[in-house]
Sequence to fold (243 residues):
Amino acid sequence: MKGVNKEEEEELLGQIEIWKYMLSFTDSVALKCVVELRIADIIDRYGKPLSLAQIAANIEDAPTPELALLQRVMRVMVRRKIFSAEKSESGETLYGMTRASTWILRDTKMTLAPMLLLENHPIHLNPAHYISDCVREGYKNGTPFFRCHGHDQFEMTGLDADYNRLFNEGGGIGGSLSEIVRAYPHIKGINFDLPHVVATAPKYDGITHVGGIVGRPIPEKTGKVIIVDHVLDPEGDEPFTDT
Fold:
């Protein structure tokens, strides 16, 4: 850096690093916003880049859209290469799809949108404010999630309808298993998850939904292959290892 010595430069660079991490949450917030507004779906539906006004005009339940705020959100998304930006002949900015934005489409089977909304849900994020307490005191008063909500994560899915919906859409309703069975129709699958999770699962050809609790006998345990994903011990937060 010109005009500063080595020590001053190191101080400034260190400050820049902290500012970067301190404000990095804005990327997730902006990404959550465009998913909730279905902006990727709007652009994809037209099949071509759209102006800010065109995007705003197609947002559902938005009688008085704030274009200046939307522009700031889209600017962040363009810098992160979630959307592309190009100038029209009239000088207007047009926003288009990228390989990343195809993964936040809501109206498609292959999407990360439900998982993104789940990871950014207040119920999911608020326990982070209790991590330092657990470092000081351990888990004697519960995990960060329990301290925050008074329930563990699986209990919360049964208490909050919106959180339960996102939790189910993010996994647990047999989506991955259905793709395997669809590709190999001779396979018969059993989707095993918590009772209130499989209760909302759609019907898939060749798949039986079974409700239960990990650690207890699995009904109809006759499969040759068992796929286990994201399983925690019901008595704590360690990976479940008992088979």
In short: Residues 188 and 206 are 5 Å apart (CA to CA). The first strand starts at residue 50 and ends at 51. The first helix runs from residue 6 to 22.
